[in-house]
Amino acid sequence: MKEGKKMAYVALYRKWRPLTFDEVVEQESIVTILKNTVKTGRIAHAYLFCGTRGTGKTTLAKIFARAINCLSPKEGNPCNECDICKGILSGQILDVSEIDAASNNGVDNIRAIIDETNYAPSISKYRVYIIDEVHMLSTGAFNALLKTLEEPPSGVVFILATTEPHKLPVTILSRCQRYDFKRISRQGIMARLEEICKDIGVKYETQALNFIAQKADGALRDAISILDQTIAASQNNITLKAARDSSGSLDRMFIEQFAEKLLLQDGGSILKLSDSIFADGRDPSNFISELMRLFRSLLIVLNIDNPKELLYEDDEEIERLKKLSSLTNTKEIAYLVKELSKLENNLKWAVQRKIVFEAGMLNLCDRRTSTEDDMEDRISLLESKLADLVANGLKYTQVTPVVTADEKVEKVEKKKEEKIEEPKPEPKKEEIDEAKPKKESKNAKPIDTLDWNDFLQNITDKNKSSISALIRVNSKGFVLEPNYLIIAFSNKMMMDMVVRNNVFDILDESASIAFGKPMKVKLLMEDELEAFSASTYTGEKEQEKTEEDDDFENALNLLSQLAEDEGFEIVNIE
Ligand SMILES: Nc1ncnc2c1ncn2[C@@H]1O[C@H](COP(=O)(O)OP(=O)(O)OP(=O)(O)O)[C@@H](O)[C@H]1O
Ligand SMILES: [Mg+2]
Ligand SMILES: [Zn+2]
Fold first, then answer.
1. Taking a C-beta distance cutoff of 8 angstroms, is the pair 169, 137 a contact?
2. Which of 54, 113, 461, 571 is the least crowded, having the fewest Cβ atoms under 10 Å away?
3. Any domain includes 101
4. Could you identify the atom of ligand 1 that is nearest to the CA of residue 55?
C-alpha cells in the first residue's frame, strides 16, 4: 500500500485500497460475516454487494476472493504472502477475474464465463468472478447468468457488485446472498484521512479534513480524491481554505475543461475526459447538469454587461468564464443546452450509458456539420452538382437505394403529381426530378436490410456487442462488388474506436457469413466514400484519379447525400 511513491503517479485512493478485511473502514457487519465465512469454509455460490459508490464493494470483493483461496488465512484475512495470494495480486493466477459489466454486457460475455466454469480452477480452490456494475448486463446476459446461478458449477463463486440493485431482475436477486454497503460515517472518513496524511507526512488542519469528509457525503473514495487534489494544490499543507478551493475547483475545473473541449470540437479530448468521468464512478447525468449550469453562466457572461451581479462568482472565475465565452456565441450555447438536456434524458433509459454518453458528446462536437444552416448549404451544393450532372450526363450505373419497388413507384408518382400541381417549377427542382429516375437502373435489385442486420448480429455473436452497437448507430453499410463491405462513418471518433479495437478479422468473418461468400470489410468516413472504388482499392488509401473515377465519385457522393435527404438506409453499388 505504501509502495510506489517514486513511481508514476497513482491516485491516492488506489494506493490506499485495503488488502485485508482488518484495514477496511466500517462496514463492520459485512466484514464480520465474510471473515466467518472464510473461517468455516461455507462459501455460497453467489454474493451481491450493493450500495453507495466508493464505499468498499469492489475492495471487499477482491479481499474475499483472495481470502477463500489463501493457503494460510489469518483470522479470515488473506495472508497476501502465500503463492496463491501473490499470484492473484500480481495477476498471474487467473482464477479471480474482474469483469466490468458496463463494457462487457452482452450475452456472449457471460457465456464465455460460463464456458470457463466447466473447467476446474487452475491452482486455486475457487474460481471467482467479480462482476462490477452488474446492473448494466443485457437481458440476454442476465438470463445466461441466471441459468448458471440456478445450477452452479462447483468451485465457482460469483460476486456481483452494483450501486443500483433495483435494476436487477428478481430472479437474480433471489439467488444471491445480499450485502448492503452503508455510507461511511464522517468520523470514519476523518480517521482515514488523518491516517493517510500522517503516513505521507503532510500537515493538515482538522477542520479541513472535516470539511472534506462532509463534502464526500459518505463515499470514502471521493474523500480521498479531494484530499489528493488538495495536497497537489496546496504544497502539502492542508488548510480549510485549500480544501474548500480544491473541492470546489476539482469539479469546476474539470467541467470547464470539458466545456472548452466541446466548444473547440475536440472529440479526442472529449473521449478521454468522458472516460475519466466513468472511471471515477461519477454520475454522468449529474455531470451533464453541471455542464448545463456552466453554459447558462456563459450565456449570462455573453449577454449581460455586469455579470457579477447575477453570477455570485469572484473576479477570477468571471475572467475564466469570459475567456470560455469568447469561444462561442448565444446561438451555439442555446443549441448545446437543448441537446444536452436531450442527452440527459436519453441517459435515464440507456443500458449502455457510457456509449450513449460518448456518442452524444461526440455528436455535439460535430455540431457544425449538422446545423440547419449547414444543411442548406449542402443541399444547394447538391442541387448545383445535380444540375451539372444532368447537363453533362451520368456515367455511373447499377445503383440501388434501399426502397422497395413499390415505394419507388410511389415516389416517382408523387413527384409527377407535384409537377402537375406546379405549373412553373423552379428549374433546379425539375432537374432533381429528372435526375432521380436515373439511379433506378434496370439491373437494380431491391435490397433488404437483412444482410446488414445479419452482419451486425454476427459481430454481436462474436462477443463484440459494443462494436456492433457502435457500427449500427454511427455508420451506413455499402456493398461494393465483388467482395467489399464498406462501413462509412459519419463520425471520425467512432470509426477510430472501432479501429482501435482491432477487430478486422471479426468484421471480415461476420460479413463473409452474412453474405455467404468471402468479404472484406473496409472502414472509411462518409466523405471518403467517393475516393473509394473496387478498382482503385489496393489496400492503400488513394490512387491517382481518372476522369471516370471522378464521375463515379461524384455520383457516389451525390447518392450518399440523397440517401441522407431521402432517408434511405443502405445503398448498394455494383
Ligand atoms: N470501506 C472502505 N474502507 C477503506 N477504503 C475504502 C472503503 N471504501 C472505499 N475505500 C477507498 O475507496 C476506493 C474505492 O473503493 P471501492 O472500489 O471498493 O468502491 P466501490 O464501493 O466498489 O465503488 P463503486 O460503486 O464506484 O464501484 C478504495 O480503493 C479505497 O481507497
Ligand atoms: Mg466498485
Ligand atoms: Zn495467502
1. no
2. 461
3. yes
4. 8
Are residues 96 and 210 both part of a single domain?
no
439 — pLDDT class (breaks 50, 70, 90): very low
**Three-class SS of 412-462:** HHHHHHHHHHCCCCCHHHHHHHHHHHHCCCCCCCCCCCHHHHHHHHHHHHC
pLDDT tens per residue across span 68-116: 999 999 999 999 999 999 999 998 998 999 998 888 888 888 888 888 8
Phi and psi at residue 165, to the nearest 5°: -60, -25
Q: Which of 213-227, 277-291, 388-402, 549-563 has the highest mean pLDDT?
A: 213-227
71, 77, 81, 85: CA torsion to nearest 10: 60
Q: Are residues 361 and 310 in the same domain?
A: yes
Q: What is the mean pLDDT of the chain?
A: 78
Taking the centre of ligand 1 as the mean of its atom positions, its distance from the CA of residue 495, in whole angstroms, is: 35
Angle value at C-alpha 204, between 200 and 235, nearest 5 degrees: 70
Pairing type for strands 484-489 and 520-525 reads parallel
- What grid cell was written down for 120? 476446474
Distance CA(297)–CA(311), nearest Å, equals 7
Alpha carbons 91 and 73: distance in angstroms, whole number: 19
Q: Are 36 and 163 in a shared domain?
A: yes
Q: Is the pLDDT of residue 459 over 60?
A: yes
Same domain for 361 and 342: yes
Whether residue 82 lies inside any domain: the answer is: yes
> Are 218 and 330 within one domain?
no
pTM exceeds cut of 0.70: no
pLDDT at 126 over 50: yes
pLDDT recorded at residue 174: 92
Distance 281 CA to ligand 2 centre (A): 8
Helix residue spans in 68-138 (DSSP H): 83-90, 107-117
What is d(CA 180, CA 531) in angstroms, rounded to the nearest whole number? 58
What domain range is 232 assigned to?
Answer: 186-246
Domain end among 365, 388, 410: 365
Peptide bond into 482 cis (omega under 30): yes
Pocket test for ligand 1, best of 22, 162, 164, 221 (most atoms within 8 A of CB): 221
pLDDT at 119 (0 to 100): 80
- Give all strands (DSSP E) within 96-176, no chain letters: 96-100, 127-132, 156-162
Whether residue 77 is found in the same domain as residue 150 = yes
**Number of domains comprising the chain:** 4
**Is 477 part of a structural domain of the chain?**
yes
CB of 56 sitting under 6 A from ligand 1: yes
* Cβ neighbours for 559, distance < 8 A, ≥ 6 positions apart: 399, 401, 439, 571, 573
What is the number of the ligand 1 atom nearest to the C-alpha of 52?
A: 25
Q: What is the average per-residue pLDDT within 288-299?
A: 87
Q: What is the dihedral of CA 296, 302, 308, 313, to 10 degrees?
A: 50
Look at residue 534 in the predicted model and tell me its pLDDT. Answer: 38
Q: Do 56 and 36 belong together in one domain?
A: yes
Nearest CA to ligand 1 atom 30: 17
Q: Cell 468521468, residue? A: 277
Same domain, 172 and 192: no
pLDDT in tens, 198-208: 999 999 999 89
